[in-house]
C-alpha cells in the first residue's frame, strides 16, 4: 500500500516520481495449514484413470503438454527456463520464505531486503538440488529493498544469472517470472513488460522500514507471496529485474491481477556489486537534500508540507540556506504536501541536479536553489 507518513520526525528517503502505486511485498509468511491448502488446490480439476493417463475434470483425455509441432515461441520459453531457473533459489527464514538469484560463483545470492528481514542466517534450496544449504548475510540496502547473502559452502556447478541492461527494456517485451510463489518451488509464469520507470511505495513490514523505489519494471506476469527476490527474465535468458511487489486493489482489498513490479537489473547489479565488495552501499546513486523531515498539517488539518526537523551540515539544504523549522512546499514544479511527495520528487532526481525549493519560514514564502547530494544508505 502507499506509505502515508505520520506527522512525526522521519528520516529522509530518496524515492521516485508519480504515480505512486499501492503494493504489497511478496515474501510468503508461512502459516499452519498453508501447505495443505496449496496441495488441495492443486488436486482440483484433474484426475488419473486406471491406466495412469491424465484426464481433465470433464473426463476428456489429456493429450499431454507437448504439441505435435513445436512452436518457435514455446522453444524460446523452454530455453529461458532451462537457462535461468537453475539460478533461482528458495530462501527460508524463521518468518517465512522468498526467492533469490545466484549472483556469482563464490556463492553470493541477491534478493530483497524484506526477504532477509533482520536475520543473519538462512536456508537455501536450489531448483536442481534436494539438500538445504546454509547462507549468511553479506549486506543489506533497505532504501532499495535489496540484500546479498552468501552460501557457507558453495556447491560446485553454481549457475550465476546473466543480468541485462535494464535501460534497454521495452514495453511489450515477453518476460518470465521465476520464484517460489506460495511455497511452490521453481514456479514459472509468463507475461509482458507493461511499463517501465514506475515509482512504487512499499509498506513497512517485519524487519523492514519500507521504501519508495523508482524506475521499477511493471509486468503482467503473475507474481505472488514467495516470489520476492526471484527473477524476471527476458527471452534472451537475461534477468531484467527482481520481482518485489504486487499491486493491491484498494477497493476490493486484494491483489490486483496482472500488475507486479520488479527492481530493474541495473539497480540490482549496481547495489549488489557494492554489497559483495564491502558489505555496504558506498554510492547509492540516489539524490538527497540532506534533511530529516516530518509532515506538517495546515489549519484545515490537511497535509501542508514537509517540515524540516534537522539539516545535515554541509549537505544540499544547508548550503542552500534552509534551516530547522522551514516547511518545504515545492521542489521545482512538484508541489510538496508531505514526506511522501518530497521523497518521490527526490527519487526523480540525480545527485548533482540543481533544483529550486519553495518553502515557508515563519509564515513567509521563499525560494532557494540547491545542488542535490547523494543519499547515504549505510
Report on the structure:
- With 378 residues, the chain is mainly beta.
- 15% of the residues lie in helices and 38% in strands.
- It is elongated and about 65 Å long.
Please state how the strands of the largest beta sheet are arranged side by side. Answer: 10-11-12-15-14-13
Categorize the overall geometry: elongated
What is the typical, i.e. mean, pLDDT? 82
Series of secondary-structure elements, N-terminal to C-terminal: EHEEHEEEHEEEEEEEEEHEEEHEEHEEE
Rg from Cα: 23 Å
Oligomer: single chain
Number-wise, the strands total 23
Structural class category = mainly beta
Please give the largest β-sheet. 6 strands, antiparallel, barrel
Fold topology:
Layout: E1 23-25, H1 34-43, E2 46-48, E3 54-56, H2 72-84, E4 88-92, E5 97-102, E6 108-111, H3 113-116, E7 121-126, E8 133-141, E9 146-151, E10 174-179, E11 187-202, E12 211-219, E13 231-234, E14 239-249, E15 254-264, H4 265-278, E16 287-288, E17 291-297, E18 303-311, H5 316-320, E19 327-331, E20 334-335, H6 339-347, E21 354-361, E22 364-371, E23 373-374
Keywords:
378 residues, mainly beta, six-stranded antiparallel beta barrel, six-stranded antiparallel β-barrel, 6 helices, disordered N terminus
What's the short story on this structure?
Helices cover 15% and strands 38% of the residues. By secondary structure, the protein is mostly beta strands.
Amino acid at each position: 500500500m502507499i506509505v502515508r507518513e505520520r506527522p512525526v520526525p522521519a528520516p529522509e528517503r530518496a524515492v521516485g516520481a508519480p504515480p505512486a502505486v499501492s503494493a504489497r511485498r511478496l515474501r510468503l509468511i508461512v502459516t499452519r495449514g498453508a501447505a495443505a491448502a496449496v496441495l488441495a488446490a492443486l488436486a482440483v480439476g484433474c484426475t488419473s484413470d486406471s491406466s495412469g493417463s491424465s484426464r481433465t475434470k470433464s473426463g476428456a483425455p489429456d493429450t499431454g503438454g507437448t504439441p505435435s509441432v513445436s512452436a518457435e515461441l514455446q522453444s524460446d520459453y523452454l530455453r529461458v527456463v532451462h537457462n535461468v531457473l537453475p539460478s533461482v533459489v528458495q530462501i527460508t527464514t524463521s518468518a517465512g520464505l522468498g526467492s533469490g538469484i545466484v549472483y556469482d560463483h563464490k556463492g553470493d545470492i541477491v534478493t530483497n531486503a524484506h526477504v532477509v528481514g533482520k536475520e543473519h542466517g538462512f536456508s537455501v534450496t536450489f531448483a536442481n538440488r534436494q539438500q538445504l544449504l546454509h547462507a549468511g548475510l553479506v549486506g543489506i540496502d533497505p532504501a532499495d529493498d535489496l540484500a546479498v547473502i552468501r552460501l557457507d559452502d558453495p556447491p560446485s556447478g553454481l549457475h550465476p544469472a546473466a543480468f541485462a541492461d535494464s535501460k534497454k527494456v521495452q514495453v511489450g517485451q515477453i518476460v518470465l517470472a521465476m520464484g517460489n510463489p506460495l511455497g511452490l518451488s521453481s514456479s514459472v509464469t509468463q507475461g509482458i513488460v507493461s511499463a517501465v520507470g514506475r515509482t512504487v511505495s512499499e509498506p513497512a513490514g517485519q524487519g523492514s522500514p519500507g521504501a519508495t523505489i523508482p524506475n521499477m519494471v511493471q509486468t503482467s506476469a503473475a507474481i505472488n507471496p514467495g516470489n520476492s527476490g526471484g527473477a524476471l527474465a527476458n527471452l534472451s535468458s537475461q534477468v531484467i529485474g527482481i520481482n518485489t511487489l504486487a499491486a493491491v486493489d484498494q477497493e476490493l482489498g486484494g491483489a490486483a491481477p496482472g500488475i507486479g513490479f520488479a527492481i530493474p537489473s541495473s539497480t540490482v547489479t549496481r547495489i549488489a556489486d557494492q554489497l559483495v565488495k564491502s558489505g555496504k552501499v558506498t554510492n547509492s546513486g540516489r539524490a538527497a537534500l540532506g534533511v530529516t523531515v516530518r509532515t506538517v498539517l495546515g489549519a484545515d488539518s490537511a497535509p501542508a508540507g514537509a517540515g524540516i526537523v534537522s539539516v545535515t551540515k554541509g549537505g544540499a539544504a544547508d548550503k542552500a540556506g534552509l534551516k530547522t523549522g522551514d516547511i518545504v512546499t515545492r521542489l521545482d514544479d512538484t508541489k510538496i504536501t508531505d514526506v511522501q511527495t518530497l521523497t518521490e520528487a527526490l527519487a526523480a532526481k540525480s545527485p548533482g541536479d540543481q533544483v529550486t525549493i519553495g518553502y515557508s519560514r515563519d509564515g513567509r514564502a521563499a525560494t532557494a536553489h540547491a545542488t542535490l547530494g547523494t543519499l547515504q544508505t549505510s
